[in-house]
Amino acid sequence: MKYVVACVALYLKYPVEQQIKFMKRNVNKLLRNVFLAAAALSGIFMAGCNNSDYSKASESSTATPSDSMMVNHDSMVHNDNMVMNADTGSAMMANPNRVDSATTTKTAKTPKKGKVSILPVTNVPDKNTTMDMDKEGFYKNTEVLPAFPGGQKELERFFEKNIQYPETASENDAQGTVQLIFSVDENGKIYQPVLAGNKIGYGIEEEAIRVFGKMPTWTPGKIKGKNVKTKYTLPIRFQLY
Hints:
The chain contains six helices and eight strands, in the order ααββαβααββαβββ.
């Protein structure tokens, strides 16, 4: 650059003829130096542009990994099916059908067994008990009570053989005594079963009625040796053990 300026200054000092000779002699050097000066200026300009672009690219590349990490972090946090491999540090899909035994283990409840017994009748009439007939012609108290064929023991065996303790009652610890009131006519036919007292539920009363329907004819009640129609209360106890 300094050489170009010196040449121009020297050129202006001489007359025109000498300037033409000078130009012919030094034109190649002048053009080369001008070209070199222009190339130098272009290089400086391009370097400045590259530095500006590089700074912008650096800012962009600095922000991108952070944003990417935030997206990946959110994906990992909100994906319940992804678990981390402790050995490799990589994520893998969890088994959606896996069941945690620690949270789902339940203590198995051992079902109880049930038995049924017939309680003995305690309201046996004595000599001072009044024996009155109701409006339908039934006696509540008689000199001789109605009886299952074979007596109390056979009645108990019949229920033990035929009755089934309801499964739902066993599962829910349901037990108690069913008061079953029914009619016995002069011929020993039993009918019109009615439940008395509080209901136990869970199929216990229904089972008592079912077995009642399978009972044979009873021996009728008697007053002064005569068969009479009687109302009889049969206590059936359902018990778990």
